[in-house]
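Kindly inspect this chain:
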Amino acid sequence: MARAAALGQQYPKRITAIIAALLVGGTGATFAVANFAPDASDLPVRTVVETVQSDLLAARNEDITELAMRLYRSETTRSSDTADTLLKRLGVIDPQAAAYLRADAQAQSALLGRAGRNVTAEVNERQGLLKLSARWSPVDDGTFKRLTIEKTVSGFRSQVETLPLVANTRLASGVINSSLFAATDDARLPDSIATQIAEIFRVTSISTARCARATASRWCMKPWKVMANRCARGGYSAPSS
């Protein structure tokens, strides 16, 4: 080591030149070896096309078809409804269904121009109508009528059935901003219930305009029977009836 250090001190330029020559020679050798490799653009290219049959993929496609999406939405009919406006509120985009509602006598009689009737639509993933049903009670005899419009292989068909009424409980809430009846319409309450609420206000000498100044109004009811009513901030209350 001492001798090598002494040589480095005596011949520094020569040793540096030797090291540089070795580095340049190694780089040139590497470049020469790299040039021996074939050009990628000159390599042969072959396209292979094969038909693959996969039972697993076919089974998955069948599963996806069977799991078609079903969407449901409910609305209440309005006196100004047409076939197009009703289907639009139900989220249905189906020209054939709209044409059927306009042409079918039972659908026109039960849905168009009738207010306060509950309507439920079932649609597919493309928002096409699969089934539409409407329920109403024309007379107080313990029964109700149900209109069903269903899509079949040959097209849409409709039928009206008379079924017994079954009591259930419904909770609704709303805010009175302009008038009581506007609030009940927004809460999707039947006109008969709205009339009972208005009668409660009249009996307790609470005017609609006075209650509208309250920030909120809520009511709880069962079908055809008002249970309680309260104007939140105004502090007014009415007994159940």
